């Protein structure tokens, strides 16, 4: 791709940032659309965040993604924050419009979009959600926006998760259980969708899985793990072995990127091109042999 004095700039800021897959995904989509934009990864240490944000504004960036550890810390540095980002308490996309910084959150849209692409409609559905961390907040917001009837949250530590459950109960019906409780077993039996938003099963601990009472699972219950490394977690492997439909987190990651692309460029990203670029990068990462110990 040829850059010129007219090229518009986009970035992702985080710390560390070298392993971000966003540049690969976004540049593939920008190139496919024939847009004169460049997307780069910028390492920003936590203490430098305010200066970095001012710098991006001064440099006239069109926008940028925000990742760990800045997603919440950036909020007070912005001029405006959309409803999703406010409810989720995290910004993953910033758009610069006439010098004003607008914070958005496209994680929920990515999460729901991937389900819709599988023709799963959430309207009136009973959902079990495992985990109550940062990603669970985007999942909860997305589930209620898409019309889920009831969400049962299963966690290891309900006391820690209670403030989150109370906060989100203003958007719909939520029940919270320790995931070995009998009531949680019943919820799994009744659920039409079970979502893993814990980090259990992510590399390198790939044998880990949240505790599901598999004997209670009804045929047809949809299992969605937002983890994307490995491609098939032990949670999804077990669900697939029971004949249940399954979905991993790759589509969510592409979807949040495609939604950010739309906010910056006004154009619809080629989802398949982004998905292929991401999948290729993930596969290259997965096939890398661990470095020998010295
Ligand atoms: P987080 O804020 O650290 O939350 C992690 C959650 O997992 C918490 O509920 C935590 O419970 C639970 N957990 C972690 N280790 C556990 C263990 N050993 N036993 C029981 N529960 C455990 O992380 P996050 O940002 O929400 O991310 C969660 C996962 O989502 C990660 O694997 C991440 O890669 C994935 N993710 C995917 C996407 C995507 O686009 N596909 C986007 C964001 C995140 P406690 O609070 O009790 O520790």
Description:
This protein has helices at 22-33, 49-58, 83-88, 107-116, 134-145, 158-168, 182-190, 234-241, 250-265, 271-287, and strands at 8-14, 37-43, 63-66, 80-81, 93-97, 100-104, 126-130, 150-155, 173-178, 193-196, 222-225, 246-247. By secondary structure, it is α/β, with parallel strands linked by helices. α8 (234-241) links the parallel β11 (222-225) and β12. Helices cover 38% and strands 19% of the residues. The mean pLDDT is 96.
Structure summary:
With 294 residues, the chain is an alpha/beta fold. The chain is built from ten helices and twelve strands.
List keywords for this structure.
alpha/beta; 10 helices; 12 strands; binds NADP nicotinamide-adenine-dinucleotide phosphate
Layout of helices and strands, plus pairs?
Layout: E1 8-14, H1 22-33, E2 37-43, H2 49-58, E3 63-66, E4 80-81, H3 83-88, E5 93-97, E6 100-104, H4 107-116, E7 126-130, H5 134-145, E8 150-155, H6 158-168, E9 173-178, H7 182-190, E10 193-196, E11 222-225, H8 234-241, E12 246-247, H9 250-265, H10 271-287
The structure holds NADP nicotinamide-adenine-dinucleotide phosphate.
């Amino acid at each position: 791709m040829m850059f010129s004095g007219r090229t518009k700039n986009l970035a992702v800021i985080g710390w560390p940032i070298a392993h971000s897959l966003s540049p690969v995904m976004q540049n593939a989509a920008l190139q496919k659309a024939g847009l004169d934009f460049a997307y780069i990864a910028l390492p920003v240490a936590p203490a430098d965040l305010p200066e970095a944000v001012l710098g991006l504004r001064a440099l006239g960036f069109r926008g940028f993604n925000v990742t760990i550890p800045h997603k919440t810390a950036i909020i007070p540095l912005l001029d405006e924050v959309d409803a999703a980002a406010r409810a989720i308490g995290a910004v993953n996309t910033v758009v610069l419009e006439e010098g004003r910084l607008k914070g958005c959150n496209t994680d929920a849209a990515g999460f729901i979009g991937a389900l819709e692409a599988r023709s799963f409609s959430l309207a009136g559905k009973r959902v079990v959600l495992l985990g109550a961390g940062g990603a669970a907040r985007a999942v909860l917001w997305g589930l209620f926006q898409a019309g889920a009837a009831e969400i049962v949250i299963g966690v290891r530590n309900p006391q820690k998760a209670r403030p989150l459950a109370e906060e989100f109960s203003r958007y719909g019906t939520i029940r919270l259980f320790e995931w070995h409780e009998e009531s949680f077993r019943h919820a799994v039996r009744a659920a039409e969708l079970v979502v893993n938003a814990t980090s259990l099963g992510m590399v390198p601990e790939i044998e880990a899985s949240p505790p599901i009472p598999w004997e209670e699972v009804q045929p047809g219950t949809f299992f969605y793990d937002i983890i994307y490394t490995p491609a098939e977690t032990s949670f999804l492997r077990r669900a697939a072995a029971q004949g249940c439909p399954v979905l991993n987190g790759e589509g969510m990651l592409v979807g949040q990127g495609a939604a950010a692309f739309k906010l910056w460029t006004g154009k619809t990203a080629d989802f398949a091109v982004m998905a292929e670029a991401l999948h290729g990068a993930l596969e290259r990462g997965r096939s890398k042999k661990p470095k020998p110990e010295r």
